[in-house]
Automatic annotation (TrEMBL):
The keyword Ion transport does not apply. Pfam families: CAP. Residues 289-300 have a biased composition (Low complexity). Residues 312-325 have a biased composition (Basic and acidic residues). It comes from the Bacteria. This is Uncharacterized conserved protein YkwD, contains CAP (CSP/antigen 5/PR1) domain. Residues 276-286, 341-355 have a biased composition (Polar residues). Keywords: Membrane, Transmembrane, Transmembrane helix. Residues 306-421 form the SCP domain. Residues 254-268 have a biased composition (Acidic residues). The keyword Signal does not apply. The lineage of its organism: Bacteria, Bacillati, Actinomycetota, Actinomycetes, Micromonosporales.
Amino acid sequence: MAELSSTSRTALIVTAVTASATAVFLPVPLVIAGAFIIVLVAVYVLMWPIILLMTLIWSIFGGGPEDPNKAAQDSIRAGQTDGSGSLSTAWVPTALVSTIEDAGDICSAVGPVVIAAQIQVASNWDNTKVGENGETGISQLSEDIFDEYGEDSNDNDKTSATDPKDAIMAQGEFLCDMAKETKKLVDDGEAIGDPLDLALAAYYHGGIDEVREHGGVPEDAGTTGYIYQVRSHFGQYLGVLGEPHESPTVTGWDPDEDEKKDDDDSDSDSGGTLDGESNNAANSSLRVPDPSADSPPDSSQKGEVLSLVNQERAKAGCDPVRSESRLATAAQRHSEDQADHQNMSHTGSDGSNVGQRLDRAGYPWSTYGENVAINRPSADAVMEAWMNSTGHRNNILNCDFTQLGVGMATNSSGTYWTQNFAAPK
């Protein structure tokens, strides 16, 4: 055995220690790398629904939010709500904004965001789509359901499931009926669950039988998948996903063909009553030059509207309506709001509906109806337009209404008229 010098022994010891240290610490980077990969995989698994949702929306519309991460979180939170809130009109075909808002105001259980999300799931705004069971049109309603709920909602002298405006209003009426019926099941102890989920489940099955049989939302993949899909679009139609690069359109529908020959576009709008029955509210959107646009109309025109309303009601055998100050306040505020924002709508600039505006004015309503119009220069002219439109005429000749408030406001674009009919509690 050879003898080593002290220097050699020291070198050997150092080498041995160094080698040992290398043997001990060499696996550490591999462990760290492996752990990092595991974390990445876990994060991806948790985030893939969000990634999928964002990718789907951007691939369809080509738009997106400035902060995708925040928007994704906001979208998830929106899907967990009841969908209430103002409709982001950028994601809706322009010609259908008013109709969707009207359908979303039929009852308090359903808002326009839910209506738009349903259409997105049902047809992706494709009016030519035909379902597996013969469902047609943008809302994909069955023939039986449309026969029961469909009406000529835009006064173009035809009622059709392939007329998007007729279909959307029928969709809103049917969904509100399902919300009302499923609420009764809950009240009677026959079902439990989230109110909107129950209504959507009943809507999906074409009636409440399946919900009653299961005591809540049926757990089959079709039902739960439908509810999930509808909710997944709430964020989009609430505006948390930014705006699309291009405005969406309806495939297979030309809105100009569905207008009346005189271009009078009338839409039905509804609001909830205390007993759950529908209140008709309508608007007339004929836009013609208003010779009085440069100066506010005389306030006596409001009194003339009241007089003309009662003349028409007398012909129909209805009692006259009386002027009511709180209704007049609500009507005037809404006319001024429309004029300030140059936007004729039943939805206020703050997202309010008719009933909410009456509440703010302190009116204790049990039922109500609203008519609005723009660019009619006089009481005679606006009443003639309203009486020539089914939805507006129905409000004027509704014998259940006992009181009326009239509002009018003028800007450079013209005169905005509002009628608020109601009966107190």
